[in-house]
Amino acid sequence: MEINTIIFDLGGVLIDWNPRYVYRTIFKTEEEIDWFFENVATHDWNENQDAGYPITKATEELAAKHPEWAKEIQAYYGRWTEMLGGPIHETVEIFRQLKKIPGVKTYALTNWSAETFHIALERYDFLHWFDGRVVSGEEKTRKPFHVFYQKLLDRYNVDPAKSLFIDDNLRNVKAAEELGIKGIHFHNPDQLKKELINHGIELEN
């Protein structure tokens, strides 16, 4: 069945976002950073803010739980803009080409705090190219929960069987596939381009 809808994740696909950019200036080794993310400022903790939990409250609560790491915890959102490494230009170029294909719609489905998303909107013009976007912090739910994907499908009248979802997190891709959406687990722009072509999407060489 012909694909008429492309759904993009943002961080790690179109935007280079990495908290290590900050924590490499705080800790001496990657192992120390790993420990901090595994035991203090965990992925689950960050995703809670992506789903709408207030950043200030989350930071205060985590610092109270780990007072010996209060300064490092405060750096997470206090220096959040330093985690933005800029656009992934090759993927943005693929997005630009997709926008030229007649009959193909593009949407963003992103886990992102509503309190910081406006910064990305101001920095990256291509975020305004989408035919629509669904942001977890605004919806108070997130990937990989099916209800979050369903919000996009319902809001923009998207047929899952004719749609393709791109995300750098395999967990999120699998959740989309459970709803009948075809998935691409993003590794790099060259791999993405090849997989889009394999799905019948015509792109420039």
Low-confidence stretches: none
Spatially, the strands of the biggest sheet line up as 5-4-1-6-7
Shape: globular
* Sheet of most strands: 5 strands, parallel
CATH topology of the largest domain: Rossmann fold
CATH architecture of the largest domain: 3-Layer(aba) Sandwich
What does this structure look like?
The structure is a single chain. The protein has 205 residues and is α/β, with parallel strands linked by helices. It folds into two domains: 5-16 and 86-198, HAD superfamily/HAD-like (Rossmann fold), CATH 3.40.50.1000; 17-84. It is 47% helix and 15% strand. β6 (163-167), α10 (170-178) and β7 (182-185) form a beta-alpha-beta unit. The radius of gyration is 18 Å and the shape is globular.
How are the SSEs ordered, and which strands pair?
Elements: E1 5-8, E2 15-17, H1 20-23, H2 30-39, H3 43-50, H4 55-65, H5 70-78, E3 84-87, H6 89-99, E4 105-110, H7 114-123, E5 132-135, H8 136-139, H9 146-155, E6 163-167, H10 170-178, E7 182-185, H11 189-198
Parallel strand pairs: 1-4, 1-6, 4-5, 6-7
Antiparallel strand pairs: 2-3
Helix pairs in contact: 4-5
